[in-house]
Every structure is written in C-alpha cells, then in structure tokens.
C-alpha cells in the first residue's frame, strides 16, 4: 500500500487538532520531538490504495519567530519534506490566518488550504468566494466545519488527488519591493545546496531575517558575507527593521487578496463571543465567576465520581474474594499474598480513583474546547501582574491541576527565562490529579459528607495561595525584574465537540492508567516485599518497611504522623499515588481490601 505524508499546520485555535482527531480517531500516537518537550501527534487514515500518515504540528502564527514550536515546524517541513501541507485557517479571521499561509507557500511543498469555521464567517456576515480565493492564491481550497465533520471527506480526497498529480502548484509568492527581490536573488544564486527552487526563496528570506536555524547550516563564507551585506544594503534603504518590512508587505498582499475574495455585508457588529465576554471577563465579576466554575467542577468531580468508584471498588473486592476462594491459603502462600495483598490491594487502591481523573479532565477539556480557558488566563493576568508574573504563567499552573510534568513542559511558551523558572519551581505546589487521588481517600476520613467538596476546593485554593507566596518571594530575591507584557489571542466561543473532548480526556487520563500498570504496579510489589519480609514476622511493624517507618517516626511525630503514614510518605516520593498503594498494602495485610474499610481504619487511627 502506498504512503502519503501530510502535515497539518495552522494558528492556535484554528481547529487543527479537531480536524486531526476526526480524521484519525483513536489511530494516533503521541511522542516528543528529539531534544525538546514539544509533543508530536501522528495518526493514520486509509484512502483508496493509500495509507495517509497525518502529523499534527504545533499551532503557530508564523515561521518567522524563534520559539521551539516554530523551529519544530520549520525543521519538519524542510527535513521530513511532507508530500502535502494542509494549512488550516480560521475562515472568520482570514486577515490574520493567511500570514502563515504566505510563508508556507514559500516552502516548496504542495499546499492545500482548509477554510475551517466557514459557518462562523457566514454568521459574521462575511461571504468568501472560495473559487476566486483559490485562483488568487493558486492553492486548492476546501471549506470545512471541523466540529460538524463537514468537508473533511472532501479535504482528504483533495489531498489524495494532489498527490497523484505530476505538476504541482506551491501557491503564489508575495512580491516584495524590488531592492528586497534583488538581494533575495543574490543569496539564491550563492546557495548551492541541492534543494528545490521554492525552498531557496524561503531560505533567502530567513537568512535576511537572521534566522539562527538557517544561519547555523551555512558553510559558505561567501554566502554568509553576502547575507550580511544584503542586510546592510536593505537596512540603509528602508531605515526600518527588515522583519517589519516583510510583515507589512505580507499584510498588504493579504489585504489585496481579501478585497477581491471576501465580502463583508455590513460594518462590525458585536458577536455572541463579545457579548459573553462582557460578563465572563468583566473587571469585577470575571474572577468570582472563574472561581465558581472551578468550584462546580470539583463538586461535580466528587459527587458524580462516587458512583463509578463504588462499582470499581466492588469489582476489586469480588476479584479478591474469587481468588481467595479458588486459591487455597496453604498453596504457594507467598505468591498468593503477592497477588492478593500486593498487586490487587496496591494497584486497586489507585485504579479506583480513575473516575475522578476522567471527570476532572472531561471538565477541563470542555473549558479548553469552548474557548473559556484562554479567558481564564486573561482574567488572572491582572492578578498575576501584581505578584510579578503574567497570564501566560497561569496556563502551565492550570495544566498543573492535571499533572506537573506536562505543566512544566508548557512553560516553553513563555518568553522570559526568569518567569519560566519561577513557574517551573511553583507548579509542584498546585494540587495535581495524583494529589486529587490522595485527597479523595483522606477527606472522607476527617470530614462529614456535606463539607467534603468545600474541603477539596479549599485544599486546591491553599496550594494556589502557597504558590503565590513563593512566586512573590522569588520575584523579590532570586528572580528580580519586570514581568513581560502579555499578548494572547482570544478564540471565539464555540460549542465543545464531544468527540474532541473525549479524545483530550483520554489523552491525559491514559498516562494515569500507564502509571498504574507500570510504575505503581512495580512499587506495589516492592512495598509488598518490604512489608512481608522477614517471612516469620506476622506483625507488619516488625517487617523491613515497619522498621524504616519506626526509624523516622521521631522526625514526623510533631506533625501527628506515625510509622505507617511515614512509610507511605517515603513510598510516595516515586509517585504521589503510591501513598495510597502503601496504605492499602499495610491495611490489606490486616485483611482490609475495601476502600471504605480502609477509610474506617484510618478514621480509627487518626481522627
């Protein structure tokens, strides 16, 4: 079967990932690009005699900036040489979206333009002459509504048809002022590496913009000399930064295209998003509304999650009973204990909280997909400035509610190194999903049902307050300096796609399952071993784990912890969820394999 490599490229919030999810479904894998923290999503789709490999590249605004995401996209286009680039643009925001398109048309790769959210453009009283736009750009164009799956079959069909053609169109190049075109030609003539003609233009433009990625690859001294000379000539001619000159010309080109292909029926009117923002991003009401939304999410997570938790708990209890009845206590006693008291009690005590994780990520995915999450960053920007950071710092912290690792990865979007370091150092103070699991076990031990969701909300709030205090201390001591300005595009509100929400929820939650199947399983066995040996000891306090706990008990005694909790704290260094595994193993050896019984035992011992 033939293979076709397709790259999905577009601005953030253009619907790129929605299209990717609908095209590939669950036939996708996630990895990291070598040497960086940027995620690589690859999916497949079969069409006729071809397997189409689709790569979802990071959302970017331009190929001209220097962030990790832009570098990844440039590298992929030039090194992997995709057969087709599907450029996804927001049809309701063409004047901004087409900037990236003008750069992609200089890459030497066939372009297929996907006009996403065409229905929203219509609602905004904009009529796009798709055929005329296609003719002006010399790029095949398909109108789509990704959230409703409209036009996606046509998109794949077009990509397939383009791959079969002998003569390919790469789109029209933006014509710059003659002095710039002259210098581009000089650089192209000196660039002797065997590459496609169109690529030479892209490389010449990037060299004129002093793009480090391309400058590092230049070995010819004559070429480097020409680049510096060309920059000096153009700088003296235009008296302005070349990047600004290039951008102005690109926007002039876009304006000339849209003048002919886009019809606005009337002047600007307030959109539905504008009206919603008047309330949700209000100067006074915005923050209380955000806190209320977060509280409702925690309430929903706790109350609804209780039902599936009970079902899973019953399942593990039944499994334990079946194995206990079928496996005689006198046969392979040690191995029997490992399976029942180690694996089932340990892993089961963590897996039981999977519904809470799924519900939490489901809610967060809805907020992300609806467009509210970007508003949350804006709302908190005013507050974040007071402690020395900006709204972008809030985004990794918000991701930190799910897991600290991707939250720390998310700091790559931050321009200031100081702000990045501060955010990385404070993210662990935010209560992540692993801590949620521990909270879910312990809160019912100490608090009656009516107060449980309030306590959970308070614990999350305490983590945020602690993070704020630490940020302030860092800003006054180790990382002095003014915060960067915060610029962020607010996407229009939209109805979240159920399919996309499920994909996002599963994408985040499956890491938790992987942990349970690997790391937590391994530590459950280690904990069981330390809690079971020496074999002759029936009293767990006299096992190796008990002895370790008792040796450090004096250190934690002022906090009210005994040796059992101390051993759980040590175990949780590897992963926070292992705290529950250790407590589960300790009490399972006494015969308790039910979470409610475990909570009752904790209540007797500590409340």
- Dominant shape: elongated
Coarse structural class: alpha/beta
Alpha-carbon distance between the two ends: 65 Å
CATH class of the largest domain: Alpha Beta
What is the overall pLDDT average? 80
**Could you say how many structural domains there are in total?**
4
CATH H-tier superfamily of the largest domain: P-loop containing nucleotide triphosphate hydrolases
Query: What is the number of helical segments per DSSP (H or I, 4+ residues)?
Result: 27
Q: How many E-type strands?
A: 9
> Level of helix content?
55-70%
Computed over alpha carbons, the radius of gyration is 29 Å
> Any low-confidence stretches, pLDDT <50, length ≥5?
30-37, 589-593
CATH fold call of the largest domain: Rossmann fold
Spatial strand order of the main sheet: 2-3-4-1-5-6-8
The CATH architecture category of the largest domain equals 3-Layer(aba) Sandwich
How would you describe the overall organization of this protein?
It is a single chain. The strands form 2 sheets. The protein has a 7-stranded mixed β-sheet, with helices on both faces. Strands 7-9 form a two-stranded antiparallel sheet. It is elongated. Residues 30-37 and 589-593 have low confidence and may be disordered. Helix 13 (286-326) packs antiparallel against helix 15. 62% of the residues lie in helices and 9% in strands. The chain has 27 helices and 9 strands. It has helices at 16-24, 68-80, 94-104, 118-123, 130-137, 152-164, 178-190, 197-208, 212-215, 221-238, 242-261, 272-280, 286-326, 333-351, 354-370, 372-386, 391-399, 404-409, 417-426, 433-446, 449-476, 498-517, 519-532, 544-556, 563-571, 578-589, 595-606, and strands at residues 2-10, 28-32, 39-47, 50-56, 84-90, 111-116, 126-128, 140-143, 262-264. It folds into 4 domains: 2-164, P-loop containing nucleotide triphosphate hydrolases (Rossmann fold, 3-Layer(aba) Sandwich); 178-264, Helix Hairpins (Orthogonal Bundle); 286-295 and 357-492, no CATH class; 310-349 and 501-606, no CATH class. By secondary structure, the protein is α/β, with parallel strands linked by helices.
């Amino acid at each position: 079967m033939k293979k076709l490599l397709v790259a999905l490229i577009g601005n953030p919030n253009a619907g790129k990932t929605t299209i990717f999810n609908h095209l590939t479904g669950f036939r996708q894998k996630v990895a990291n690009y070598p040497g960086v923290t940027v995620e690589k999503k690859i999916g497949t789709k079969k069409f006729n005699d071809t397997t189409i490999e689709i790569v979802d590249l990071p959302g970017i605004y331009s190929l001209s900036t220097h962030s990790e995401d832009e570098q990844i996209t440039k590298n992929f286009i030039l090194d992997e040489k995709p057969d087709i680039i599907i450029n996804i643009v927001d049809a309701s925001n063409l004047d901004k979206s087409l900037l990236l398109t003008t750069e992609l048309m200089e890459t030497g790769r066939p372009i297929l333009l996907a006009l996403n959210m065409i229905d929203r453009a219509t609602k905004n009283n904009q009529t796009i002459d798709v055929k005329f736009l296609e003719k002006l750009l010399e790029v095949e164009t398909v109108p789509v509504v990704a959230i409703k799956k409209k036009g996606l079959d046509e998109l794949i069909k077009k990509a397939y048809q383009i791959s079969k053609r002998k003569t390919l169109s790469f789109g029209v190049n933006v014509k710059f002022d003659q002095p710039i075109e002259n210098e581009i030609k000089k650089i192209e003539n000196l660039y002797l590496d065997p590459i496609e003609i169109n690529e030479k233009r892209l490389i010449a433009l990037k060299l004129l913009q002093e793009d480090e990625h391309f400058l590092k690859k230049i070995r010819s001294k004559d070429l480097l000399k020409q680049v510096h000379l060309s920059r000096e000539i153009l700088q003296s001619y235009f008296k302005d930064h070349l990047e600004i000159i290039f951008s102005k010309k690109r926007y002039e080109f876009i304006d000339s295209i849209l003048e002919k292909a886009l019809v606005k029926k009337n002047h600007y009117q307030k959109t539905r998003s504008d009206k919603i923002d008047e309330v949700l991003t209000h100067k006074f009401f915005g923050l209380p509304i955000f806190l209320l939304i977060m509280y409702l999410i925690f309430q929903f997570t706790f109350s609804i999650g209780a039902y599936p938790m009970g079902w899973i708990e019953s399942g593990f209890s039944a499994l334990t009973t079946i194995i206990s009845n079928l496996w005689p206590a006198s046969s392979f006693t040690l191995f029997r204990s490992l399976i029942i008291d180690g694996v089932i009690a340990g892993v089961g005590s963590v897996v039981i909280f999977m519904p809470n994780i799924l519900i939490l990520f489901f809610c967060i995915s809805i907020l992300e997909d609806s467009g509210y999450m970007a508003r949350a960053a804006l709302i908190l920007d005013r507050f974040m400035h007071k402690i020395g950071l900006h709204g972008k710092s809030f985004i990794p912290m918000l991701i930190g509610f799910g897991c600290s690792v991707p939250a720390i990865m998310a700091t790559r979007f931050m321009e200031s190194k100081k702000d990045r370091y501060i955010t990385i150092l404070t993210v662990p103070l935010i209560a992540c999903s692993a801590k949620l699991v521990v909270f879910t076990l312990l809160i019912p031990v100490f608090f009656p049902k009516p107060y449980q969701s309030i306590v959970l909300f308070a614990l999350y709030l305490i983590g945020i307050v602690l993070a704020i205090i630490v940020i302030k201390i860092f800003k006054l001591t180790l990382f002095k300096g003014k915060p960067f300005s915060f610029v962020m595009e607010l996407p229009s509100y939209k109805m979240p796609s159920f399919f996309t929400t499920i994909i996002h929820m599963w994408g985040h939650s499956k890491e938790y399952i992987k942990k349970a199947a690997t790391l937590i399983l391994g530590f459950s066995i280690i904990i069981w071993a330390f809690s079971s040996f020496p074999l002759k000891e029936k009293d767990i306090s006299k096992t190796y784990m008990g002895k370790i706990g008792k040796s450090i008990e004096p250190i934690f005694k002022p906090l009210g912890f005994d040796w059992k909790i101390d051993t759980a704290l040590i175990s949780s260094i590897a992963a926070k969820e292992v705290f529950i595994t250790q407590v589960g193993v300790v009490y399972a050896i006494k015969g308790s394999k039910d979470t409610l019984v475990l909570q009752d035992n904790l209540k007797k011992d500590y409340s």
